[in-house]
Design brief:
Structural class: alpha/beta
Radius of gyration: 18 Å
Number of helices: 12
Distance between the termini: 21 Å
CATH topology: TIM Barrel
Number of strands: 8
Strand order of the largest sheet: 1-2-3-4-5-6-7-8
CATH class: Alpha Beta
Largest sheet: 8 strands, parallel, barrel
CATH superfamily: Aldolase class I
Shape: globular
Oligomer: single chain
CATH architecture: Alpha-Beta Barrel
Strand content: 5-15%
Length: 274
Amino acid sequence: MNRKQLFENIKAKRSFLCVGLDTDIKKIPEHLLTEEDPIFSFNKAIIDATAQYCIAYKPNLAFYESMGVKGWMSFEKTIKYLNDNYPEQFIIADAKRGDIGNTSAMYARTFFEELNLDALTVAPYMGEDSVSPFLGYDGKWVILLALTSNKGSHDFQLTEDKDGERLFEKVLRKSQEWGNADNMMYVVGATQGRMFEDIRKIVPDHFLLVPGVGAQGGSLEEVCKYGMNSTCGLIVNSSRAIIYADKTADFASVAGEKAKEVQMQMSDLLKAIL
């Protein structure tokens, strides 16, 4: 999916919501545990209930890998279900990969060729040759970690060099030598608030994947005030606040209601550019 297609979908749905499929076998409704594949059954129900309100899904690989082969099979079935039934959805594998060149090339083959995902989160710590193998696929995206919303982000990302440049700013500037706004996005946590202003000075046109709205307390209004650009430029993720909103047999319809609430908020915020 290219940038134009992504923006067209945002305009059509008046939404830039990404639903995070952080599916934990210990948190899904108990009645699903008798199913042949409880994780896939949960994901399928969540997808069917929320697809009309969102433009992307982001399964977090750790939740599937924690269950071994069974979990990986659930992940594959989820991706196939999305590709077959909701081809307009932008699918992000939240895997935070990034390794020496030949290893990254294998990760790229896995996610972009074998699984046919749209995007992959990548850690930039090892530099250009760990990122560039992911950039050789037309219509596929690298989503590079830039400024995250966790407490530990202050340990490295906000450290300054002798010229006052913070590490996350160096990542933003340097990585533009490797990719561009048509194949690279950045992860910026929703709790960073006005930091979005600083980020937009460096990457005015790129899409930003923004986790941390909802359960983590990030403000959607602040994210849009400081981070939205003329083509929206935001994909805002919400996971727990939507998928675990209810633990009864009505979990999917409640998730749909929560997604609709966010979509309606987003529709109002999009009036600034549409």
